[in-house]
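Hi,

I'm pasting everything inline rather than attaching a file, because the server keeps stripping attachments. The sequence lines come first, and each chain or strand is labelled.
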Amino acid sequence: MNYTDRTREDKILLALQHVLAGDKDAFRVIVDTYKDSLYRYCLARTGNEDRANDLVQETFIRVYRSLPTFKLGKQFGPWIFAIASNVLRTSWGRIKREQDIASQIFYPEDPDQNNPEHDAMQAETRTELVRVLRKLPHDLYEVLFLYYFEGLPVSDIAETLSIGEENVKSRLFRGRKKVKELLQPKGFKKGIIE
Amino acid sequence: MMDCVQVATLLNSWEQKESITTAELEALKAHLAECSSCSRQYGALIPLLDRDGGLSTQVKIPLESTKVPDTERLMAGLERAIAPDEQGFHSQIQSRRFKRFTPWAAVAALLVLLPLGYLLYANRNSDVVTVRFFLEAPGATTVMVSGNFNQWSSMDIPLKPEGDGKTWSATVRLKRSREYRYNFVIDNQIWIADPHAAVSIDDDFGGKVSLLDL
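And the predicted assembly:
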């Protein structure tokens, strides 16, 4: 999803005014617009569908409660993503402890792929990627997610996270480096020939 | 055919610059298909490399329909969570928005709306058009115009009462060649389409918004 899409923003801002005017049901438009994207954000980090669902619910509750503090003139997409990012960040310690106990990460199969061999390989690749993403610091994860999973250009990520483009590029670089490091087999040390 | 050292060099370069060509990506995949050691080490990077190599626009996460959050379920969860503090939430909004709301005055205002709409003052050489919005709403305490030109704010473009005490108006300068959508907001409470607009469409919230095509 493009968090800075102007047409979508326009529709959301109208919905926001209706919610603030007491039409709670207008919040449905905000939920409908962002739920899948936020779910992917939480799923790629946690690798657990039930947990991701809980995080999305928590995010929307916080968004609803924070609506009166939203400042017009700011963009809504980046604002809602920042709330989701905070929810994920604050819940992360607890989630990680729970998941360390439950060793198995569940990850969905790709329903569009009919070839079982291809399917298994893709699922394995993605599971491995999710395993690695879980170990990244939050600031690197959010940038990698927006860039690779949401397909946003650097300029939009900078706007979404309210940071400079150079900072985004630097985090992307550190993120890729960290992912590569984490994928290295245990005991393998760079520059040491055994 | 790429060897293991070339693969490592290529991935170091990608790590630094995030760029990889399609040809390099194909060669890399060919090597990974043959080399189980490199495949174990780098296989998980393929979805990221596909994005940077232009083979995909984003890493797809297939969503199982039964597990994707359902809007109704989320709304029900929200309802349960906010019920205890609903009073507080609305009193917060009330204090911000409806301080001077008097329901009877607003209803009376609605009943006597007369079609006035807007007037345009345009200079052919300018890319800005001056638009004057009118609404007849006697009995109203405040009238605002809210649209996609002011991010649907219901606070920042007030219409001022004219001498007759019934008609409200405001002048706004808008860029040409755009389609604008707007409502009038009476007493910070009632959102209505412009009764005299050429076109008004559904706003998806059970009401209408008026269109102004410049």
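The mean pLDDT of chain A is 80.

If the labels don't parse on your end, tell me and I'll reformat.
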